[in-house]
């Protein structure tokens, strides 16, 4: 079975260590809320704003999740220190998209996916199925891997903070983007590859229809 999706808008960001310009102060004016945000949450909020999405269903994904919070918890356990309630709260996989939804008072369905290198591919597949309802969906993926001593285990990723977003809806038009013949050309986490390839192809070639094989 195949479903074609129209990419209404897309955006992506990545940096070797930390993305600098996320407009967090402007997008989240309340300081107490802003201080609680994880890096992934800041990226998610930034990307949703870039494609003008504030209300609707969201499918979010990350292979590694909130790695910084998880590492901090493990370090506390290793040091026999109390675990920070904030770190514990922020350690779940849907942290970023939950902050995004609370900020926008979005009460629509949210799905969170984590499936290793296939994370963004499975976001696309889930989005294609959900699109059968006829509404506009936000497909979002982030990775935030810039933690202490990451260089000791990382030998293949050049960009440790990354995010990509696609705003989509179902279409009967023929596909214009071939997922098998595009490559984003940079060493970002493979979990983002499929969506990042689409976003880059759309920006370069202004093609915006993809065929999702289920």
Concise description?
The chain is an alpha/beta fold.
Topology overview:
Elements: E1 2-15, H1 24-27, H2 31-36, H3 39-50, E2 57-61, H4 67-78, H5 85-89, H6 95-104, E3 110-113, H7 119-130, E4 137-144, E5 161-171, H8 193-205, E6 209-213
Parallel strand pairs: 2-3, 2-4
Antiparallel strand pairs: 1-5, 1-6, 4-5
Primary descriptors:
six-stranded mixed sheet, 6 strands, alpha/beta, single chain, 214 residues, Peroxisomal Thiolase, Chain A, domain 1, 8 helices
Q: Give the percentage of residues in beta strands.
A: 15-25%
CATH architectural designation: 3-Layer(aba) Sandwich
The percentage helix is 25-40%
The CATH homologous superfamily name equals Thiolase/Chalcone synthase
Unreliably modeled segments: none
Q: Structural class of the secondary structure composition?
A: alpha/beta
Question: Span from first to last CA?
Answer: 6 Å
* Assembly context of the chains: single chain
CATH class call: Alpha Beta
Mean pLDDT: 92
Structural account:
By secondary structure, the chain is of the alpha/beta class. The chain contains 8 helices and 6 strands; from the N terminus they run βαααβαααβαββαβ. A 6-stranded mixed beta sheet has the order 3-2-4-5-1-6, with helices on both faces. Helix 3 crosses helix 6. It starts with a strand and ends with a strand.
């Amino acid at each position: 079975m195949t479903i074609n999706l129209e990419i209404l808008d897309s955006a992506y960001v990545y940096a070797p260590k930390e993305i600098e310009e996320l407009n967090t102060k402007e997008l989240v004016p309340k300081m107490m809320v802003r201080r609680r945000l994880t890096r992934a949450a800041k990226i998610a909020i930034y990307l949703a704003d870039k494609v003008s999405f504030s209300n609707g269903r969201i499918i979010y994904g990350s292979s590694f999740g909130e790695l910084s919070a998880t590492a901090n918890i493990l370090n506390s356990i290793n040091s026999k220190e109390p675990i920070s309630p904030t770190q514990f709260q922020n350690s779940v996989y849907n942290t970023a998209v939950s902050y995004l939804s609370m900020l926008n008072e979005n009460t629509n369905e949210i799905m969170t996916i984590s499936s290793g290198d296939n994370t963004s591919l499975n976001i696309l597949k889930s989005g294609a199925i959900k699109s059968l309802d006829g509404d506009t969906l936000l497909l979002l993926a982030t990775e935030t891997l810039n933690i202490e001593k990451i260089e000791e285990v990382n030998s293949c990723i050049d960009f440790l903070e990354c995010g990509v977003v696609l705003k989509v809806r179902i279409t009967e038009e023929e596909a214009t983007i071939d997922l098998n013949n595009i490559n984003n050309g940079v060493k970002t986490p493979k979990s983002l590859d499929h969506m990042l390839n689409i976003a880059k192809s759309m920006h370069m070639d202004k093609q915006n229809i993809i065929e999702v094989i289920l």
